[in-house]
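During the second year of the project, the team shifted from modelling isolated chains to modelling whole assemblies. The rationale, set out in the original proposal, was that interfaces cannot be judged from single-chain predictions alone. As a representative example for this report, we include one of the complexes processed in the last quarter. Its constituent sequences, exactly as entered into the pipeline, are reproduced here:
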Amino acid sequence: MGYVGVSLIVASVVWVLVAPPPWIHPYLPFFLLPARRHSHALLLTSKPSSPPRDNDTQNSDDKPEARNGGEHVTSKEPERPRIQVEEARSNLAGPPLVDLAPAPAPAPTRTSSPTSSPTSSPDPAPARDAKAAQDRDRAAMPPPPPVIQTPASVPTLQSPPQLAEPEEEQTTPKVSATAHDASSVPSFSLSDESAPAQPAEPSIRTPSASSMMPPPPLPTKPSNASASRPSFPMLGSPQVARPPGAAPPRLHKIPSATPSTLFPRPDSQQIARGPAPNRIPAAAATATAAAARARARAGPSSLAPPPTHNQPPQKPSRKVLLPPGHSPLDWARISGPTADLRNLPPDTPYLKVTPSMLKRHSGRRGTDAWSAFAGRVYNITPYADYHPGGRGELLRCAGKDGTRLFGEVHPWVNYETMLSACLVGVLVPEEEGSRESEMDAMD
Ligand code: HEM
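Output from the structure prediction step:
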């Protein structure tokens, strides 16, 4: 349809250009307007130098508006007035106030009464003087612009809507082309059926969407039952293949489908390959979980996560159950910075403890248990009942250096802070202690 419409348009244009019909001659100036526009503008500006005419000589003196109106010109040349009106309209961007139909009109004369014009000014004499001055100024200026107002002495040029006759009002191609003789003018409509059917249409018919667009394809003829229902059956669906008038299939009748419509087909290789990996039977899933547990019991594998400090210790805990009031917090409370748990006189300075001295404080025979850790000697007797590992474990290092045992069990423990209130002195060699004892004896 689109090709047919374009072909009709092209054929019409070629026909008009090659063999223009007689009725189109009056409209040719409109098509040739752009070409003749400049030449006609020159004609208007050179009006005073044009050959004199009977009425033009009178109007060219003090009636430039009448001259520009072109009534005397239009009466002799049917094409020029339309050009003038078109030019005036394009320059002034407004409706033309002058109907330049070839109808004979009385020539404007100086003796015409100004009051005869329905739109004449109340005081024409000063207006004529002013317009005469304007005429002189306009003659001095190169291109005189077209004047909208008509002189008061030209009553026939006033009120174009009232004076315009239907058959003479062909000032624009838009109105004259299709308004009055649409039957003889080729229509722009692409629809071959609608154009001749409505010859009396007063306005230009815009091509309808149905004439521009092809109709949608109809897959099947809609039946009476499906036509009223706005359904969109898919190709191959039973609804499309259903004969007219038949009842629509119901969804619960799926078993009626043949094996060829099932997906996947029973003999398909997809079924032969077996179910998908994530759809293994329950028995197989149980076996897989059991195998994973067995691998976990067997020991760390390459896939096992690396060991971290959060893992439980390999050795069983040897912590003992302490009696109430012997928790680490209870020890922290009684062993503050100002506490003294050495079991020595209050002003006793830190002692130089020799190995023999240390050995005599083993916790036996009513003595306190002293122990050395990293060169410092502590009285561990007050802490023995607060030791998480038990009293017996702690007293294994009583009367001797317990640095090695301490490091073997819990090197991370901060014993210096925990036993600050139990610090007795420093461990010194046996010789140094014997010399000091000799000096004390001399004193
Ligand atoms: C005087 C210095 C010592 C202090 C301050 C001390 C302190 C502690 C503390 C705080 C804990 C608890 C550790 C934890 O919870 O992880 C502990 C546990 C223990 N300590 Fe000591 N300790 C001392 C000396 C010793 C010595 C010399 C021995 C051994 C001969 C020992 C054997 C143990 C044992 C076996 C545990 C239990 C470890 C466990 O399984 O959690 N401690 N000690």
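Residues 32-109+118-171 form one domain. The longest strand covers residues 423-427.
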